[in-house]
Amino acid sequence: MKKLIALAVAALPMAAMADVTLYGTIEASIENGKSLSYSGGAAKSTTRIDDTGSLIGFKGSENLGNGLKAIWQVEQALSIDGTNVNGNNTWATRDSFVGLTGNFGTVRLGKLSSYLNSDMEKYDAWIYGAGVNGATVTSANTLDTRYNNSIRYDSPSLNGFKVAAQYGFDEARTTVKGNRSNKAVWSLGAGYENAGYYADIGYVSFQDTDASASKDGNYWRLEGGYNANNLLVALAYGQSKLYSGAADATKAKEAALTVGYTIGALTPKFTYAHVWDTKVNGTKADDGINQYVIGVDYALSKRTTAYTSFGYVKHDNIIVAGTDERKERTLAVGVQHKF
After folding, report:
1. What single-letter DSSP state applies at residue 136?
2. Which of 109, 151, 255, 330 is 20 to 30 A away from residue 186, measured at CA?
């Protein structure tokens, strides 16, 4: 009798969760190199084990009839190397939402990626952690992100065309110099894909970002290329105008090129990225950056990939005070498994 009760209890959650999908990625690498992200920014040679982007998620849907579905997702970043990164000891650190989808498109509410983060970045086709063995010098690593308190609309694909719009509410609305600020974030995106050729553009605006909460920063990037028949050719160009705590406006330009080709289980890849000298209030700074990444992925199965990659970054300016250090490098060997 006890065995029958145990079987019945065990079957209940399975029935209740019949429309729920459990998914995730577990990945880590062993790295060696000198990077500003290692050793407290001292750019000292370090060997480390890095979690390179592990996550776990739950998602599901319910058919509401007439082509309408309710959708939801809760996704959480993990740190399998034992390091708490980006608050991974809290829940729903990645895209988590509830929404509706149908012939009109998709509307979601929650913590959501911008179009730049979710639908672009094909040029950054690397698995990496804290090192420079990925397209780390581009703004994708800091400005392509997720926004809290967001509402996002995605259109259905119309002959290969798609658009997206998102607004992240500022729920604090603090008062700055007698004026109520609104540090909301909004973004737009559009793309086209046909026969492997693709083009995307994404834009994000950061409102009231200077010290007086009166000026808006922005970032946009254009991407295009070919991604089919075992070949990846991806180009990107972006510009940003951001404000520091003062009224200083920092303008930046960047570009990247990635080429990869799959031969059987092997995919060798190469990326070159360049950041031009920034301008602060119109004054040019000597802080340009060149980055090179080379590596190869090996598909052990459809869900498991082993890889090795080497990244090298050359700065125009000195990156460690009191030295002549201008370079960063990372050599990594890792494994990624998706479930």
Report:
1. T
2. 255
Query: Which run of H or of E encompasses 129?
Result: none
Q: What is the DSSP string of 4-69?
A: HHHHHHHHHHHHHTTTEEEEEEEEEEEEEEE-TTSGGGT--EEEEEEE-S-EEEEEEEEEEETTEE
- Alpha carbon dihedral 56, 102, 18, 79, in 10-degree steps, equals 0
Rounded CA gap, 205 and 189, in Å?
12
Please state the three-class secondary structure of 43-57 as a single string.
Answer: CCEEEEEEECCCEEE
Nearest to 52, CA basis, from 338, 336, 339: 336
Which one-letter amino acid corresponds to residue 156?
P
**Domain 22-338, architecture per CATH:** Beta Barrel (2.40)
How many CA atoms are closer than 13 Å to the CA of 166, on its beta-carbon side? Answer: 31
CA distance 306 to 299: 6
Closest CA to 145 of 101, 93, 192: 93
Question: Can you give the pLDDT of all 339 residues of the chain as single tens digits?
Answer: 444 334 444 544 544 445 899 999 999 999 999 988 886 666 678 899 999 999 999 999 999 999 999 999 999 999 998 886 555 557 899 999 999 999 999 999 999 999 999 999 999 999 999 999 999 999 988 899 999 999 999 999 999 999 999 999 999 888 887 778 888 999 999 999 999 999 999 999 999 888 777 889 999 999 999 999 999 999 999 999 998 766 678 999 999 999 999 999 999 999 999 999 999 888 898 899 999 999 999 999 999 999 999 999 999 998 888 788 899 999 999 999 999
Task: Please report, in angstroms and rounded to a whole number, the separation of the first and last CA atoms in the chain.
Answer: 36
Sign of the torsion angle spanned by Cα atoms 231, 259, 203, 174 = positive
